[in-house]
Design brief:
alpha+beta, eight-stranded mixed sheet, five-stranded mixed sheet, 16 helices, 16 strands, RNA-binding
Length: 431
RNA sequence: GUGGUUGUGGUGAAGUGGUUAACACGGCGGAUUGUGGUUCCGUUAUACGAGGGUUCGAUCCCCUCCAGCCACCCCA
């Protein structure tokens, strides 16, 4: 019996999915198809190709890629040893793995810019909350190989177009530049100097961030930390020429296509690999977890993971969050139960004849059903009605004897008899 | 990891320290024997999240755990 931290027994209920996970049921799967179709359609327009990487990777990949001191790596990973003793981790995000695949499969050989997208489950040991789950799904895209702001603009527009095409409103696009290894250390030092004056005021978390990642302090919501941060140098003012130029270039591209965005110099992505461009798309209809999309440039990641120095940029969109937004904005696709034909049968030997009809119709791709539970004729019609059947084929004893069957139009109520051989043509001509 | 809140049948939802735990929806069957969507009737389901404690007795009181929801934190 497993025990929890306080020593109590943990009663695991077998008939209950693990905390923070969810079954996607038949009643909801249509929503996922809807999202996936939109993703594939738009990615095709943008020239991004789908990649599917394993659901787990060597733990080290995430430690190196995402960063040892990030929350994700420090306390949110599903990590275990496999039977040979390798440390394995369920992917908490997919950028590191995509980059690994890019290097391993030498995708750089094909093209100076490799454009990939992925859809799939990610795993993070977080306390569940509105819009937050332990297994959740991301749609993400990565453009690896070129450093220019035009690539940044393209990938941002990909994310934006996806969300827009779904009909989402009230989206806020936040933009920032987090600098590069050339300018960040200098900024870091200046920021620390500024914060040092009020170090005593900082909350406990921020004190521990002071050395490890002082930029995160700007993000803190504690009032005293915000006070301490007043007048802090803005990262955007300390960017090196290259980063500043890049950031300005990106804004020009976005302005050229008329995208409204906000600059937010407190936007700091929580993963270490980001350089230069960082962006986030928010919607306050989501609750506390207001980000639907987060992304940025990662010019050092490929090298960090063992490839040749190669720039890249990407984003990830939380699919459950998109679904939440679609639902509360009334934008989910209509649920349509579509059945073309219900084959009703009653009486001796009719079940075999009905099954033959059913199978024949299906072999032509017609959506057809029949009853397997021995209901009466009336119940079968009720069922056909509930299934929204357009037609009911009646195969009773009378019809069986005469070698015919009756085709009833459920909307008009009109019913015609026909020889068995004509059933398919009759149905096909009406559907 | 912390805090708040909730946990009754397939679903929504009443209720009580004590013989048969409402009601509604749904499901199934029927209203003249083989034809639906309305209506009416009947019927259905070993429902009190799990474990322990208090008590003569607990679904209702106490403790622990599990889960859902929400917030901190973090992020998609």
């Amino acid at each position: 019996m497993p025990r929890n931290a306080s020593g109590g027994r943990m009663y695991i209920v077998l008939t209950q999915a693990p905390k923070g996970t969810k079954d996607i049921l038949p009643a909801n799967i249509i929503n996922w198809y809807y999202l996936e179709n939109a993703i594939r359609r738009i990615c095709a327009a943008y020239g991004y190709k789908e990649i599917r990487t394993p659901m787990f990777e060597h733990t080290e990949l995430f430690k190196r890629g995402i960063g040892d001191t990030t929350d994700i790596v420090e306390k949110e990973m599903y990590t275990f040893n496999d039977l040979a003793g390798r440390s394995i981790t369920l992917r908490p995000e997919n950028t590191a793995a995509a980059v690994r695949a890019f290097i391993e499969n030498k995708l750089y050989a094909d093209n100076p810019l490799v454009k990939l997208f992925y859809i799939g489950p990610m795993f993070r040991y977080d306390t569940p909350q509105a819009g937050r789950f332990r297994q959740f799904h991301q749609f993400g895209a990565e453009a690896i190989g070129l450093p220019g702001p035009d690539v940044d603009a393209e990938i941002i527009m990909l994310a934006v177009q996806f969300l827009r095409e779904l009909g989402l409103k009230k989206l806020k696009i936040l933009l920032n530049s987090v600098g590069c290894p050339k300018c960040r250390p200098g900024y870091r030092k200046r920021l620390q100097e500024h914060l040092r004056e009020n170090f005593g005021q900082l909350c406990e978390d921020c004190r521990s961030r002071f050395d490890r990642n002082p930029m995160r302090i700007l993000d803190c919501k504690e009032e005293k930390c915000r006070q301490a941060a007043v007048g802090a140098p803005a990262l955007q003012e300390c960017l090196c020429d290259e980063c500043a130029e890049h950031f300005a270039g990106l804004q020009k591209y976005l302005q050229a296509v008329g995208l409204a965005f906000e600059l937010d110099n407190t936007l700091v992505r929580g993963l270490d690999y980001y350089t230069k461009t960082a962006f986030e798309i928010q919607c306050d209809l989501l609750g506390a977890q207001s980000a639907v999309c987060g992304g940025g440039r990662y010019d050092g990641l490929v090298e960090e993971v063992g490839g040749d120095p190669t720039p890249g940029i990407g984003f990830a969109i939380g699919m459950e969050r998109v679904l939440i937004l679609l639902e509360n904005q009334g934008l989910l696709p209509p649920q349509e139960e579509k059945l073309s034909v219900f084959v009703a049968h009653a009486g001796q030997g009719t079940n075999l004849a009905a099954f033959k009809l059913l199978t024949e119709l299906r072999s032509f791709g017609v959506a057809a059903e029949m009853d397997f539970s021995g209901r009466g004729m009336k119940s079968q019609f009720k069922l056909a009605n509930r299934l929204n059947a357009q037609y009911v084929l009646v195969m009773g004893e009378n019809e069986l004897k005469k070698g015919v069957c009756a085709l009833k139009n459920m909307q008009t109520g009109e019913q015609v008899e026909m020889p068995l051989g004509q059933v398919h043509d009759a149905v096909a001509s009406k559907l």
